């Protein structure tokens, strides 16, 4: 009975964490859609969606990038802008190798890694406009 109570307690904590993550994810998706509506990216015109925001939660930017890929069928990169350095997470579509795309900009990136369909990188904020 003690282990069952402990398991139920831990399950409740995990459920709460998941609910909090979903709220944060929904909020970030709303912000991303607002940027798109405001003209930061036009999925009908742009071959890739690149959006940035100050101090976006790095734990969920990849999840939101995935949602944008599903909605618009465009590769999507979300950049969480820090004070001097930013971190990004991207998701892709089968027709576009995201890692090969990043390799073309490796001279601008501090670090990067991933595979064809998902990748991440760190970048000095001064280099973001050149992406």
**Total beta strand runs:** 5
| Biggest sheet, spatial arrangement of strands | 1-2-3-5-4
Give me the strand/helix succession.
HEHEEHEE
Mean pLDDT: 96
Stated plainly, the CATH topology is called: Diaminopimelate Epimerase, Chain A, domain 1
Number of domains: 1
CATH architecture annotation name:
Roll
| Poorly predicted regions | none
Determine the N-to-C terminus distance.
Answer: 57 Å
> How large is the share of residues in beta strands?
15-25%
Q: Give a quick account of the main beta sheet: strands, pairing sense, barrel closure.
A: 5 strands, mixed
User: Radius of gyration from the CA trace?
Assistant: 17 Å
Overall body shape: globular
How many helices?
3
Determine the fraction of residues in helical runs and give it as a percent range: 40-55%
């Amino acid at each position: 009975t003690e282990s069952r109570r402990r398991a139920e307690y831990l399950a409740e904590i995990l459920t709460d964490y998941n609910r909090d993550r979903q709220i944060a994810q929904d909020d970030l998706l709303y912000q991303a859609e607002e940027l798109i509506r405001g003209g930061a990216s036009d999925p009908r015109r742009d071959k890739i969606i690149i959006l940035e925001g100050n101090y976006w939660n790095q734990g969920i930017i990849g999840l939101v990038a995935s949602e944008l890929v599903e909605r618009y069928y465009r590769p999507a990169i979300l950049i969480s802008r820090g004070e001097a350095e930013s971190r990004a997470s991207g998701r892709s579509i089968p027709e576009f190798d995201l890692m090969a795309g990043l390799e073309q900009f490796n001279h601008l990136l501090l670090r990067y890694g991933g595979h064809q369909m998902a990748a991440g990188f760190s970048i000095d904020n001064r280099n973001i406009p050149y992406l």
